[in-house]
Amino acid sequence: MCKNSSLLRFTPVPHQRRARGWTSQAQIAFIAALSRCGVVAQAARSVGCSPRSAYLLRRKAGADSFAAAWDWALEMGLDESRARAVALIRGKRERPIVRRGRIVGRRTDSDTRVMFAALRALGADRDGRRAAMPHNQRIALRHILTTLVDNGPFSPEEWALLSPALAAVAGAPPGPATLS
Fold first, then answer.
1. Whether the Cβ atoms of residue 47 and residue 33 lie closer than 8 Å to each other
2. How many Å apart are CA 155 and CA 114, to the nearest integer?
3. What angle is formed at CA 69 by the lines to CA 165 and CA 137, rounded to 5 degrees?
4. How many CB atoms lie within 10 A of CB 111?
5. Could you say which of 21, 37, 57, 109 is the most buried, measured as most Cβ atoms within 10 Å of its Cβ?
6. How far from 74 is each of 33, 40, 41, 92, 113, CA to CA, in Å?
């Protein structure tokens, strides 16, 4: 599948038995396609489903594993797309020169549309827009929570210190620190 295929292992979302739609095989193929292209609509259509139904499936109960694989696949697909765009910038495209309906030669030049798209993608990395994408925030928050679970349990005093920082990371207004 890809270099980091272990990150894409997930438990498919339970579904009703239907001949078409989001079967387990369709979910696995969708995640694989998403890891290659980084575009949800394209990946969903590649398995014969709509992008809207993909987002609905992601929100279903029991879709946590699928959503985590989606996040990783999207990140990997964006990286792959950016790498392909940068490779295309370095390469040249060949276009025919046509005179009176006949090819009289070839012109070699760079594809400026691809170049500008790659530059926008690289710029999103540098100015932080890509880091602010919701799936990147979820991945970062999941990592923080895993680290906390590995280092816990915490005393009430430690929790009082951690709670405001966690609220800030999660985007919630800091409230009273409570142990739940």
1. yes
2. 54
3. 25
4. 15
5. 57
6. 9, 8, 12, 28, 23
